[in-house]
Amino acid sequence: MRLLLLLVSMAISQGFVQVPLTRRKSLRKTLQELGLLAELNSNIQNLSSKYSSGLQEAATEPLANYMDNEYVGTIYIGTPPQEFSVVFDTGSANLWVPSVSCTSAACTNHHKFNPHLSSSFHTSTEVVSISYGTGSMRGILGYDTVQVGSIIAEKQGLVLSEAESLFLYYSHFDGILGLGYPSLSVSGTTPVFDTMWNEGLISQDLFSVYLSSGNGSVITFGGIDNSHYTGSLQWVPVTEQKFWQITINSITLNGQVVACQYGCPAIVDTGTSVIAGHPEAIRGIQKAIGANPDIYGLYNVNCNKISSLPDIIITIDGMNYNLPASAYINQFPGSCSSGFQSTSGLWILGDIFIREYFVVFDRSNNRVGFAPIVKS
User: Fold this and answer.
1) How far is CA 82 from CA 25, 98, 109, 121, in A?
2) From residue 161, how far is each of 22, 41, 110, 124 by CA, in Å?
3) CA dihedral sign of residues 5, 6, 8, 13
4) pLDDT at 114 over 60
5) pLDDT at residue 341 in the model
6) pLDDT at site 135
7) Mind giving me the DSSP string for 49-93?
8) Distance (Å, rounded) from C-alpha 140 to C-alpha 65?
């Protein structure tokens, strides 16, 4: 069963009590007031160009691949740190992990955060509910230290779940770390990436994602590792600063436009395993590739015919992005299924697309960059 981590609803309880927090002025803010920030950034850019890896004051987070369905990394919360595995999800904007107060079955087989064991934890009385394409949770908003790779963000807002849907029992992750825009965040809680940038913990206001079907998948905060892609990055403007939303010009199969003939909005979503789109268009694609539905809602394909199936071409900002059948067909021992799925909302370019194209999420310029990956 595929996970569509698309934030679609939220509910916040009445009677919210603001927890006062003492916040020190960041180094970045101080340098900006002194007129030295531009000079510092210039020096960093010059220094970083000397490194062949292409990284610029960046922090990398390795991601484990579970059957091309979930990509999970490790973070640490609290003092002393408690370990959690999370999906880094560009389709939402909040961080949440299970709490020791959670009584749902989904919490019984995952790590649970104990706020009483963290000397840096602060709580609030705000109740937050988040629903995804599949799965939902409800919990209490709190604040604590969060470590991602080598980056340590203090007083980071996070939700401690007290109830989770049964679907999450089967997930390989404990929680979700959202990487969408702040406008997508529940109750205005600052997303983790924004905290990194606001506190001067990274030198560039961007992050990049490399997903592989094998080993070596990674997310890089504050830099771009050019060893993961070939050619040049093609930049596409973000059309709405909520999700990482762009415009698809068209989707073509066998020379015929099968979807988005007049353009359609789409989001680039690391938390979704499939490519999802409008039901009518998806039905047409399933028919064209010979995919037939089964009783579980999957569209099965004859494994012996994969080599003869056509490429699907997704045109974005005038550039063609080819997806071969080996990319859009999920292959398992003894069965194969289509990687396309219907949704009533925006089109979603999920992991099927991202495994073929390295992606840079550039907040400073509100754009997304794509380039063909170097396959391992």
Assistant:
1) 27, 12, 16, 12
2) 25, 39, 12, 13
3) positive
4) yes
5) 95
6) 78
7) TT-TT---S-EEEE-EEETTTEEEEEEEETTTTEEEEEEEETT--
8) 30
pLDDT of residue 132: 81
How far apart are alpha carbons 44 and 25 in whole angstroms? Answer: 21
pLDDT digits (tens, 9 = 90+) for 66-77: 999 999 999 999
Q: Which amino acid is at 204?
A: Q
Cβ contacts of 281-287, under 8 Å, gap ≥ 24: 281/251, 282/340, 282/341, 282/342, 283/342, 284/258, 284/259, 285/251, 285/253, 285/258, 285/259, 285/312, 285/338, 285/340, 286/338, 286/340
The catalytic site residues sit at: 89, 269
Q: What is the mean pLDDT of residues 332-354?
A: 95
What span, in angstroms and rounded, lies between the C-alpha atoms of 185 and 163? 19
Domains and CATH numbers, the chain: 9-14+57-203 (2.40.70.10), 226-372 (2.40.70.10)
The contacts of residue 237 (CB under 8 Å, 6+ apart) are 246, 317, 366, 367
Question: Is pLDDT at 142 greater than 70 in this prediction?
Answer: yes
pLDDT band at 57 (very low <50, low <70, confident <90, very high): low
State the amino acid at position 174 in one-letter form. Answer: D
Query: What is the pTM (predicted TM-score) of this model?
Result: 0.85
User: Can you spell out the DSSP letters for 214-277?
Assistant: SS--EEEES---GGGB-S-PEEEE-SEETTEEEEEEEEEETTEEEE-TT-EEEEE-TTBSSEEE
